[in-house]
């Protein structure tokens, strides 16, 4: 078989996230279990699109302007020494909580609690932080939800209605409550206002280090140019206050470049195979206009997977 552009792009992209165990390997053992959200949810649609790649970068940028949150990352995370491992573990968490049956969701929560338990300390401005609770937990969760929402709205395959956006915010607030985050806006507008007016944001040494890292992470050579397009697209969607604190600004063509690359990725990879797996688990029909090109990484799944 000759070289195929579509499969080459897909293989390169998926390979970046293959540095942790797949969290839904036994999902079909829980037939009928809809997990936290279910087949009609906004979460399954939004997280299942390739625009989440922009959303993930954007979330890391926005999270970095909270000095206590970014201090916890700098002091306790392995992102600088094992960036692809951390990326894969974060992706596994999002996958499990979005698409998993409840036992898989509960396992993801247990893993997060175990990882967060030792994460505490003091930021450069003398404020104590802990990853397991408090305003920092709300900041991390809400920023991730709002970034996925913004990325889908900007780079997704179809316009997002206000009602659908509010549905996603409400679903993510339910998820945040299970993580014991105390502040959880449950509409799109309230979520945006909460982030844009948050009182704790400021520059910090951790912010500068994170921005430097995210601007040029140690990725494989083949992934560096596409990543820069995604990074610039993420910067172009930042709230003005956050962009000012970070000291970044949008570059001409960043949005159109991001849309082109996300469209290419969507063409090559299709929608999330974990979305397909969750639909299969609950016996729901495949959504109109959604393409699933690759099965999830589970042995033997090819016998029931039919590419669309």
Pattern of helices and strands: HHHHHHEEHHHHHHHH
Beta-strand percentage range: under 5%
The spatial strand order of the largest sheet comes to 1-2
What is the radius of gyration computed over CA atoms, rounded to a whole number of angstroms? 19 Å
Largest sheet, in brief, is: 2 strands, antiparallel
Please indicate the count of domains: 1
Strand tally: 2
Q: Give the rounded overall mean pLDDT.
A: 90
| Mass-distribution shape | globular
Tally of alpha and pi helices: 14
Topology overview:
Blueprint: H1 5-15, H2 42-47, H3 52-63, H4 67-76, H5 83-99, H6 102-116, E1 120-122, E2 128-130, H7 135-155, H8 162-178, H9 188-196, H10 205-215, H11 221-236, H12 240-246, H13 254-269, H14 273-282
Antiparallel strand pairs: 1-2
Explain what the structure shows:
The protein has 308 residues and is mainly α. It has one domain. It contains 14 helices and 2 strands. The chain has helices at 5-15, 42-47, 52-63, 67-76, 83-99, 102-116, 135-155, 162-178, 188-196, 205-215, 221-236, 240-246, 254-269, 273-282, and strands at residues 120-122, 128-130. The chain has a two-stranded antiparallel sheet. Strand 1 and strand 2 form a beta hairpin. The mean pLDDT is 90.
């Amino acid at each position: 078989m000759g070289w195929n552009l579509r499969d080459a792009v897909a293989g390169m992209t998926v390979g970046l996230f293959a540095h942790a165990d797949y969290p839904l390997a036994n999902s079909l053992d829980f037939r009928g279990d809809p997990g936290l959200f279910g087949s009609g949810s906004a979460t399954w649609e939004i997280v299942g699109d390739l625009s989440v790649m922009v959303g993930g970068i954007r979330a890391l940028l926005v999270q970095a302007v909270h000095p206590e949150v970014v201090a916890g990352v700098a002091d306790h995370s392995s992102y600088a020494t094992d960036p692809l491992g951390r990326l894969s573990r974060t992706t596994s968490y999002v996958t499990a909580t979005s698409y998993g049956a409840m036992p898989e969701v509960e396992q993801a929560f247990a893993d997060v609690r175990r990882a967060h338990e030792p994460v505490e300390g003091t930021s450069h401005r003398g404020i104590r932080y802990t990853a397991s609770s408090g305003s920092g937990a709300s900041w991390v969760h809400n920023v991730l939800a709002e970034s996925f929402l913004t990325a889908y709205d900007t780079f997704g395959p179809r316009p997002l209605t206000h009602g659908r956006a509010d549905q996603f915010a409400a679903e993510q607030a339910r998820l945040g409550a299970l993580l014991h985050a105390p502040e959880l806006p449950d509409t799109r507008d309230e979520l945006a206002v909460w982030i844009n007016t948050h009182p704790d944001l400021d520059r910090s040494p951790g912010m500068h280090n994170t921005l430097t890292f995210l601007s040029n992470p140690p990725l494989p050579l083949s992934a560096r140019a596409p990543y820069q397009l995604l990074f610039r697209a993420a910067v172009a969607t930042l709230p003005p206050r956050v962009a000012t604190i970070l000291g970044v600004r949008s570059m001409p063509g960043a949005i159109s470049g991001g849309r082109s690359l996300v469209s290419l990725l969507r063409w090559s990879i299709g929608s999330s195979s974990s979305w397909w797996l969750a639909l299969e688990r609950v016996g729901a029909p495949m959504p109109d206009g959604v393409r699933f090109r690759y099965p999830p990484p589970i042995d033997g799944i090819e016998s029931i997977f039919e590419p669309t």
